[in-house]
TrEMBL record:
The keyword Disulfide bond does not apply. Belongs to the citrate synthase family. It comes from Thiobacillus denitrificans. This is Citrate synthase. GO terms for biological process: tricarboxylic acid cycle. The gene is gltA. The lineage of its organism: Bacteria, Pseudomonadati, Pseudomonadota, Betaproteobacteria, Nitrosomonadales. One of its GO terms (cellular component) is cytoplasm.
Amino acid sequence: PVIDIRALGSHGYFTHDPGFTATSSCTSAITYIDGDEGLLYYRGYPIEELAYQSDYMEVSYLLIHGELPTAEQKRAFETSIRHHTLLHDQMENVFRGFRRSAHPMAVMIGVTGAMSAFYHKGLDNFDPQHREIVAHRLIAKIPTVAAWAYKFNEGQPFVYPQNRLSYAENFMHMMFSSPCEPYEPNPVLARALDRIFILHADHEQNASTSTVRLAGSSGANPYACIASGMASLWGPLHGGANEAVLKMLEEIDDVSKIPGFIKRAKDKSDPFRLMGFGHRIYKNMDPRAAIIRQTCYEVLDELGLRDDPQFKIALELERIALEDDYFIAKKLYPNVDFYSGIIFRAMGLPTSMFTAIFALARTAGWVAQWHEMLSDPAHKIGRPRQLYTGSARREFVPLDQRG
Ligand code: ACO
């Protein structure tokens, strides 16, 4: 049942729901999740059909506009994205202001936020055409930002986008090409990466998307709002989990040690959790995890890595956890982050870039949600309430009289 708080509000009631476990913050027509059945739809299309029959450009268009594009619309969208892939020349200075050792997510948050300094004047968030340009710019530029954050880390020259390449190939090119050697795109890996982008493109009102909406609800600069979403995504309970999964698999090191880690995950005195397991909404298999597992087989086969020891540990960990009473009782299943790290690592992508790739893919969802929010004439600034637990009124004591 849905209780409409707008009706209660007029009577002075409000809900207290830490973690928003039972509170909807908005209406949205973008993404539908049925956590009990393990269903995920973008604009009514099952994720499985989009993952296997569509591509990330088409899905981005779908998320923003609500309909799949015609061939003509898709061409125009891709042309616009290609047109915007370059960063302003001065943005290079923003990268150079960071320490070389900075985490790529820290650099991405900073650089994306800095875009607000380049694209602010004359920007009208309430003009749909302006919003469309913002969406295109962000989808186009974030792969460049992510790849350059990595190149900066590595002390390598920045690689400019190659607009004849597909979206996923272009990202791989900017990551892996060097002035000495161009990267040769591999169609199987590019397709797998594009599919991972689709799976991560949106997931309704999660922490980072809600952050983007809340920041944007005040009419703030959208580039700064997307940077705030990235900051939220970075946490290990959210998009940072893919990095944490790989670290955990490295730590487990051998299938014989899995039972010990399962035991730790169940021990309430130990803060350790099985990373890549559990989800606030899914109380059944995360449908994205099943697709990613299948994609993992395809990528490892392509690279001749089917015997990858970490993949074996992951499969065995999943098998044991799914048969364990604790995980069954708490409905803890592998989530989208469980297998993605193994794919990224096999592709040669460094662990520190895993969350950055998630952020890249989620940009389409963030801009679609921001656009949807501002398109609603009834939209209001987000302003949660609180239950005050501090002291009652106290008398101020001047500094020289305090004991
Ligand atoms: N390992 C062991 N126990 C777990 C795990 C886990 N991965 N996840 C949840 N639990 C247990 C909790 O200890 C809690 O037990 P209790 O009832 O005895 O207190 C119970 O299951 C419910 O967990 P909550 O943390 O209350 O569930 P919530 O919905 O708040 O959290 C979350 C969901 C954050 C995803 C959680 O399952 C978790 O920490 N997972 C590991 C991190 C992870 O994989 N994050 C990625 C999420 S997907 C994404 O963001 C793309």
